[in-house]
Amino acid sequence: MAAPSTADITWIRPAKGWRLPDLREVWHYRNVLFNFVSRNFRVTYRQTIGGPIYAVYQPFMTMVGYTLILGVLFDAQNDTAIPYPLFSFSALIVWSLFAGVVQGVSMSMQKNSTLIQKIYIPRLIFPLIEMFMELLTFGIA
Predict the structure, then answer these.
(1) Which residues have a Cβ under 8 Å from the Cβ of 73 and sit 6 or more positions away?
(2) CA–CA separation, 56 vs 87, rounded Å?
């Protein structure tokens, strides 16, 4: 068997300096993104009693706690015509979206490090998976 010529070898080197992510490559792997998001959604809510209703249950119970503590004990009222429980619930849903995206995106590379080492997928896919999972939960809530 003959040794490969230099024309058969492809050298992959990192680009110098900062550059924008290649969104065309992410678009090319959109099926991987969709499959990971759907798999994570099914795995997350598979063994819960209420299924995706849990996405509403967690902010709702936090809202009940805030309403009891701040609304009843400390008599905190907002100056608008919106009732305090509704005001608190809407704020908690938006806050849980922000906190979930920041937490999920920051841990996405470490959580998928074995997959990154085994096959080639654009690395931007993994933070997008976490972001779309949180957006899906936000949409349910």
Answers:
(1) none
(2) 15
Distance (Å, whole) CA 138 – CA 132: 10
C-alpha span between 48 and 45 (Å, rounded) = 5
CA–CA distance, 95 with 93 (Å, rounded to integer) = 5
pTM for the whole thing? 0.74
Nearest to 137 by CA among 67, 32, 59, 63: 59
Structure tokens at 138: 């936000």
For residue 132, pLDDT beyond 90: yes
Check if the beta carbon of residue 67 is closer than 8 Å to that of residue 96: no
Q: For residue 111, give the nearest of 126, 100, 125, 123 by alpha carbon.
A: 126
Please report, for the chain, the start and end positions of each structural domain, with discontinuous segments joined by +: 53-141
Comparison of pLDDT for 131 and 72, the residue scoring more:
131
